[in-house]
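User
New here, help please:
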Amino acid sequence: MAIAKTAPTTRIERECYANGSRSIVGMDEVGRGSWAGPLTIVAAKLPLDRRVNGVRDSKMLTEARREELFDRIAHWCEDWAVGEASAAECDALGMSAAQKLAARRALGGLAEEPSTVLVDGPWDFIEGGESGAIETVTIVKGDRISLSIAAASILAKVTRDRQLRAADTEFPAFNFASNKGYPCPVHQTALQGYGPTSIHRRSWAFVDNLIWTGCHRVPAVDLRQQSNQERLFPDLVLQ
């Protein structure tokens, strides 16, 4: 699907309802490419009879504007929920499995399971949900097309940014308040000087450069063979 040049709309949501969908949510994630902090996913269900002005793909808005919109969007949504995979879970599971886990947690936080999920990007990481009955509609650049996904993108971005700003007070050398855990020169310099923190993803290649700290990359594990990991992540269901 082509990138929209105008503001996101509810056209796709309305089409899905017209085709028989009972309940539709938009879903977006943030933090996939970060070196530190959680992978955060939000599922958001919007009303179709009213809207909040100014909702766009979160990447197109300033941090101040996202913060300004957050409460308005949260109250506007008929339902919304956050699901996360921690840095440790991203390391233990690998990013694809962690994304599925965070999505499952977000859907589990909703008042009811939706019949349709609009996902930003080409990959269906919902795979039917817990019931196996969820339809997934994948939309490339969906946060610029679907209003539900755009709303979810802002809620996810602000939720995660607030956590990284809080982490900045614990790890001030890393400037998490500014970089939100993503790569940048200050972040790289702090890693060289201090090594990774408790919220860093140690399975990522950046630890290979931290020679004097003695850090080594932690490989993802096969949870089917690691019963202790099942105790760590009891809500993870492997197929």
Remarks:
- Helices lie at 11-18, 63-76, 87-93, 95-108, 147-170, 176-179, 185-194, 227-232.
- The first helix runs from residue 11 to 18.
